[in-house]
Write a structure and sequence with these properties.
Blueprint: E1 2-5, E2 9-12, E3 17-20, E4 23-29, H1 32-43, H2 53-61, H3 70-86, E5 94-97, E6 101-104, E7 110-113, H4 115-122, H5 134-170, E8 178-183, E9 186-190, H6 199-210, E10 221-229, E11 239-250, E12 256-267
Parallel strand pairs: 9-10
Antiparallel strand pairs: 1-2, 1-7, 2-3, 3-4, 5-6, 8-9, 10-11, 11-12
């Protein structure tokens, strides 16, 4: 089966290959597990319900004689997101819904594609590309440019977040990170001090966000947690709160050197 995502990316479930519709030379090969996860998310998209981790463990790993784990699932989802963003789609294509599972963003437009049509549009023979296909190609490139701009914006926001965390933690003249709590082996910090009456609520939110994402921390790692409102008008109808969490490594000078970022969205059912 082949799917077209946002008229931009073709997903071939036979080879688990992501390919640009208007450029057959640009593609991303997913692992078998990542490909099966994306296929399950697409197949269950019409139900309106998220796909539970238990279902993915059974259908993607156990059914193929493999041992499932939360860490492996998170790794495969990360690979899918990287593959989609590298081809111009937004990183929020896959939404994590705490305590419930995963689902594709409802704003994605996904359609099936017959094999012969896929070959004609994505793998044309030399000197045999039909002239009447030119307008759809131009339209697809336009959508690609829009998705590329959104991806660039997401990258900039992430970089700014890391830079902000570095500045807060490294410069004594600026606002520092505030220690919130110790959860398992992880020291958790926030960008702003948490009032005493809200500390327990924040601790519970942090524990929930860390489940399946950050199991433990080595001595040179910390966790940064923040909750913000979503200003993006494209998604605020369905999502109103974004929770940011980062697992960051400290170098020999006790400075933050790199971070693994997580974004969680509060999904409003319609």
């Amino acid at each position: 089966m082949k799917y077209i995502i946002n008229s931009t990316v073709a997903f071939d479930t036979t080879e688990y290959l992501l390919t640009l519709v208007d450029d057959a030379d640009t593609s991303v090969k997913l692992s078998n597990s990542a490909g099966r996860v994306l296929e399950e998310l697409i197949q269950y998209r019409g139900t309106g319900e998220p796909v539970t981790r238990e279902h993915l463990f059974a259908s993607v790993w156990s059914a193929h004689g493999l041992q499932p784990s939360n860490g492996n699932l998170n790794q495969q989802v990360s690979l899918i997101r990287k593959g989609l963003t590298s081809l111009g789609l937004d990183a929020s294509a896959i939404i994590t819904i705490p305590k419930r599972g995963l689902k594709l963003n409802d704003q994605l437009v996904i359609s099936t594609l017959e094999e012969d049509v896929f070959q004609a549009t994505c793998i044309p023979a030399v000197n045999e590309f039909p002239m009447e296909l030119a307008p759809p190609v131009m339209l697809s490139r336009g959508r690609k440019n829009i998705n590329g701009a959104l991806t660039l914006l997401m990258v900039i926001v992430t970089l700014l977040t890391v830079i902000m965390a570095y500045i807060y933690y490294e410069d004594d003249d600026n606002q520092k990170l505030y220690f919130s709590s110790q959860i398992n082996s992880c020291k958790v910090y926030t960008f702003h001090p948490i009032p005493g009456l809200e500390k327990e609520d924040y601790r519970l939110r942090i524990v929930e966000a860390m489940k399946g994402n950050v199991e433990k921390c080595k001595n040179n790692y910390i966790v940064i947690f923040s909750k913000t409102l979503i200003p993006d008008p494209l998604i605020q109808d369905n999502i109103n709160v974004r929770t940011f969490m980062a697992k960051c490594r400290k170098d020999e000078d006790d400075h933050i050197s790199n971070c693994l970022n997580f974004f969680f969205y509060n999904w409003s059912e319609t």
